[in-house]
Amino acid sequence: MKLGLRLNLYRAARLEVPVETVRAAERLGYHSVWTAEAYGSDALTPLAYLAATTRRIRLGTAVVQLAARPPATLAMQAMTIDALAGGGRLILGIGLSGPQIVEGWYGQPWGRPHTRLRDYVTIVRKILDRTEPVTHDGREIQLPYTGPGALGQGKPLRSILHPEAPIPLWLAAGGPKNTALAAEIADGWLPMGLGPAGVPSSMRGRPEFDVFTGATVRITDDVRGTLDAMRPLTAMYVGGMGSATHNYHRDAMARRGFAEAADRVVELWRAGRRAEAAAAVPDEYLEQSALLGPVARIRRRWNEGFVPPGVTGVIIDAAGVPELELMAELT
To answer: How many other C-beta atoms are found inside a 10 Å radius of the C-beta of residue 269?
Structure first.
């Protein structure tokens, strides 16, 4: 089982990269450290910083948002960071986000996201492969661009910079279409809403195909208090991060077997009853992706099959180095 370290920098009002914690994870043999982005700090810049302050740990995005940059820009940034890191350390996890951010923050149409994701990943891979000047005639993205406003002078180009090593492309996905797309065109999957049944059989056992899920780890004598502290953020994501027609966090909760509770959280949140929405988040739902309590309790839950079948790695949200050490011992 591979271990990753999750950095929640994107949720902070001030950016502070915990370099010493990342170095501790590296010393403990962690496979990777992971950043993300929403509408605060971006996912890639901290990885460039960590490339200079670490030596071996892999640098992953979970995830970069598709709408944040054209595919060529993402490929350029990926090759640049991986070169700074010494080659072979970067993992690009790519995700769609949702229409509230895509249209509200990036000023782009939601369009046909499944089709756009296929075009986007295909172009990034073509650029990274560097076998020929890049052209792509997709339904959502075309290179060279020949649409409205074009001069008709676009030229197929090949990256000046040569990749130091292959850069794997992973997809974050939850729904059936994009999950199938991840299995078809990606090198790994970051599942959203993976339940106890685990990874679909069709995606298991593929050589070099990784599936990483997440886990919050807290060594504490106050399990109840820790669960209660987790509820408001969970309720905000499930109830407040989606629209009436596109609510991926609600859908993820439902896929994990808590559809009725998810609908109740959404209902209460939209009614402005946020404390009640938080209280409606079930303990069992939180503990599906959390290892909380004294060391003996965490060890027992891990050994009883905490990780769903087919998962190859767990990205840890740790309170500190003791949690990192414990998870390194358990694996």
So the answer is: 22
Please give the Cα distance from 27 to 241 (Å, whole number): 36
Instruction: Set out the domains of the chain in order of their start, with CATH numbers.
Output: 2-202+315-330 (3.20.20.30)
Q: Are 143 and 150 in contact (CB under 8 A)?
A: no
CB 234 within 8 A of CB 90: no
Tens digit of each residue's pLDDT (9 = 90 or more) over 55-108: 999 999 999 999 999 999 999 999 999 999 999 999 999 999 999 999 999 999
Write phi, then psi, for 292 (nearest 5 degrees).
-125, 145
Question: Where are any strands of DSSP class E within 106-204?
Answer: 136-137, 142-143, 169-173, 188-191
**Chain centroid offset of residue 1 CA:** 18
Helices and strands (H and E) in the chain: how many: 13, 12
C-beta pairs of 252-259 under 8 Å, 24+ apart in sequence: 252/174, 252/192, 252/193, 253/193, 253/285, 254/193, 255/174, 255/193, 255/194, 255/195, 256/193, 256/194, 256/195, 256/196, 256/285, 256/288, 257/195, 257/196, 258/282, 258/284, 258/285
Which backbone phi and psi does 157 adopt, to 5 degrees?
-130, 155
Residue range 236-284, pLDDT digits in tens: 999 998 888 889 899 999 999 999 999 999 999 999 999 999 999 999 9
In whole angstroms, give the CA distance from residue 288 to residue 78.
Answer: 33
For residues 3 and 30, the answer to whether their CB atoms sit within 8 Å is: yes
Q: Is the dihedral of CA 66, 72, 77, 83 positive or negative?
A: positive
The structure tokens 């992953």 sit at 60
Helices (H), the chain: 19-27, 44-53, 71-85, 99-104, 113-129, 176-185, 223-240, 248-255, 259-270, 274-279, 283-288, 295-303, 321-330
pTM of the model: 0.96
Bridge-based pairing state of the strands 2-6 and 313-318: parallel
